[in-house]
Amino acid sequence: MTALSAPPRPGPATAVAADVHPVPGTSSRSAPWLPVVLLGVAVAVLAGIGTDVVGGDTLDGMLSDAVHRPAGGWWLAGCMVGLEIAAAGTALGVHRRLGAGARRTAVLGLLALWSVGLAAVAAFPTDLPGLDTTAWGRVHQVAAAVAMVVPSVVGLLVAATCSPPARRALRGAAVGLGGLGASFLALHVPVVFAGADPASGIGLVERLLLAGTATTAVLVAAGLAGIEAPPPAAEGGLR
After folding, report:
1. CB 201 within 8 A of CB 180
2. Is 128 helix (H, G, I), strand (E, B) or coil?
3. Contacts of 100 (CB under 8 A, 6+ apart)
4. Please, where are the H alpha helices in the chain?
5. How many of the other CB atoms lie within 10 Å of CB of 187?
6. How far apart are alpha carbons 181 and 179 in whole angstroms?
7. Please, what is the angle between helix 72-97 and helix 202-225, to 10°?
8. CA 193 from chain center: how many Å?
9. How far, in Å, CA of 61 to CA of 50, rounded?
10. pLDDT digits (tens, 9 = 90+) for 36-78
11. Which residues, other chains included, contact 192 with Cβ-Cβ below 8 Å and sequence gap of 6+?
């Protein structure tokens, strides 16, 4: 009985067991930005669907056109608020998990730019289809372009710091999102600069962009959760 109850003698097995640590950032407690990003993405996607509920054309109509329909402006604002929440959660994860340096500064700066662009999209409504573009409508177009481009760049910057599986998934999502953005710009250039009617399918591309942005935001948050937090000395620039 005493032999069975005695503690195990130190040896290779116990030494290996003592060196095993849980993977960092795998729970909402160790990665508090994860539920924030998920909440923001859920709000953005549901509100984006809401812009169609009030009469949008999923294939050819733009999400921003919802401001010209009853209650449509509220749905569009809700979509932007959801993305703002996701941006704030992502910034928290970047601050917690990326070491001080040029990459973290660049990502935080891009997230701030994205947040400003989202706010401008909601604050400056688009012009009615077929009418001349006003100054506020031009601000809306520029802000929408910023809001569309930034997430894929953030995804590529964060992907370089993630584990190999997370890196592959995030890079794939970011590249796919960039491709959708390029397609959207190609379809939208004649509308902005030549006053042409929107090409058929441009509304569907924009909705795929929203879905791709949501996917990329979730993958960025998950990838950050798998990065080990830098030691306190690294935060202060000390070795």
Report:
1. no
2. coil
3. 230, 234, 235, 237
4. 2-5, 12-18, 33-53, 72-97, 102-123, 135-159, 164-194, 202-225, 232-235
5. 17
6. 5
7. 30
8. 29
9. 13
10. 999 999 999 999 999 888 777 788 788 888 888 888 889 999 9
11. 133, 141
Helix (DSSP H) and strand (DSSP E) numbers for the chain: 9, 0
The alpha carbon torsion through 225, 103, 184, 192 (nearest 10 deg) reads: 140
CA count, 13 A, side-chain hemisphere, 16: 2
Structure tokens at 80: 């932007």
Distance CA 124, CA 194 (A): 21
> Phi and psi dihedrals of 231, rounded to 5?
-65, 155
Based on C-alpha coordinates, what's the Rg of the chain?
23
Place of tokens 């791709």: 212
Q: Looking at residue 28, what is its pLDDT?
A: 57
Tokens of 147: 């809001």
Rounded Cα distance between 160 and 24, Å, is 18
Nearest-angstrom CA–CA distance, 106 and 160: 13
CA atoms within 13 A on the CB side of 71: 8
Look at residue 7 and give its three-state secondary structure.
coil
Residues of the chain below pLDDT 50: 1-26, 234-239
Return the amino acid letter for 109: G
pLDDT at 186: 83
Does pTM surpass 0.85?
Answer: no
Tokens of 42: 């859920």
DSSP state of 24: T
| Residue keyed to tokens 């959760």 | 225
Say how many C-beta atoms besides its own lie within 10 A of residue 182's C-beta.
13
